[in-house]
C-alpha cells in the first residue's frame, strides 16, 4: 500500500467510499451522498489551500484523507481539521493510520499549529482509538448535536499539537 496525493482519476472511488459512509455511518452528518462533481470540487478546494488530500492505494483506492481549514476566520489560519474515510472492506487493516500519519507529517512540515478531529458519534471507537493512537487528546464532547438515522448523535472533539507554540515558525494555511 502506498500513500499518495489524490488525482482526478481517484474521484469515482473517493465518491463511492464517502457515499458508503454517508448512507451507513455516523462519521459524517451528511445524509445524501454527494456526486463525483461535488467531491472533485471539495478536493480542489482543499488543494487550493495547499493542504494534503491523499489516498491509500494498492492498485485500487482503499481510503482517503485530507486536512482542511478548521474554520474560515483569520484567527484559525494555523489550525486544520482532519478527515479520514476507509473503504468498508479495509477497516481495521491500518489504512486509516497510514493516511492520518502522512496527513499529520505534511501539516507539520507546513508549520501548522493544531489539528482538530471532529468525530461523529461518541460510540465511534475506531476513529476515537485511531486518533488517540496518533497522539490526539480528547478535548470535549458535544452531546446530541446531530440527528441521523432517527437518533441524536454526539460529536467528540480531539486535538493534536503539530508544533510548539512559536509564532516565528508557524505558517498560515493557503
The tally of strands reads 7
Whole-number count of domains: 1
CATH class wording: Alpha Beta
CATH architecture: 3-Layer(aba) Sandwich
* Unreliable stretches: none
Helix and strand composition category: alpha+beta
Count of helical regions: 4
Average pLDDT over all residues: 94
What coarse outline follows from CA principal-axis ratios?
Answer: globular
Question: What does this entry look like structurally?
Answer:
With 174 residues, the protein is of the alpha+beta class. The protein has a single domain, classed as Gcn5-related N-acetyltransferase (GNAT) (Aminopeptidase, 3-Layer(aba) Sandwich), CATH 3.40.630.30. Helix content is 29%, strand content 32%. It has a seven-stranded mixed sheet. The longest helix has 15 residues, at 95-109. The chain is globular and about 40 Å long. The mean pLDDT is 94.
Amino acid at each position: 500500500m502506498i500513500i499518495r496525493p489524490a488525482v482526478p482519476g481517484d474521484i469515482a472511488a473517493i465518491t463511492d467510499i464517502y457515499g458508503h459512509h454517508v448512507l451507513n455511518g455516523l462519521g459524517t452528518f451528511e445524509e445524501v451522498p454527494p456526486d463525483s462533481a461535488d467531491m472533485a470540487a471539495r478536493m480542489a478546494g482543499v488543494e487550493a489551500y495547499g493542504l494534503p488530500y491523499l489516498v491509500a492505494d494498492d492498485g485500487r483506492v482503499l481510503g482517503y484523507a485530507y486536512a482542511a481549514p478548521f474554520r474560515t476566520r483569520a484567527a484559525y489560519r494555523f489550525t486544520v481539521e482532519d478527515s479520514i474515510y476507509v473503504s468498508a472492506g479495509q477497516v481495521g487493516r491500518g489504512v486509516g493510520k497510514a493516511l492520518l500519519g502522512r496527513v499529520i507529517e505534511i501539516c507539520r512540515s507546513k508549520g501548522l499549529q493544531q489539528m482538530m478531529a471532529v468525530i461523529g458519534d461518541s460510540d465511534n471507537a475506531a476513529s476515537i482509538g485511531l486518533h488517540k493512537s496518533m497522539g490526539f487528546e480528547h478535548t470535549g464532547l458535544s452531546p446530541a448535536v446531530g440527528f441521523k438515522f432517527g437518533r441524536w448523535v454526539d460529536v467528540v472533539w480531539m486535538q493534536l499539537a503539530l508544533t510548539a507554540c512559536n509564532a516565528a515558525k508557524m505558517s498560515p494555511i493557503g
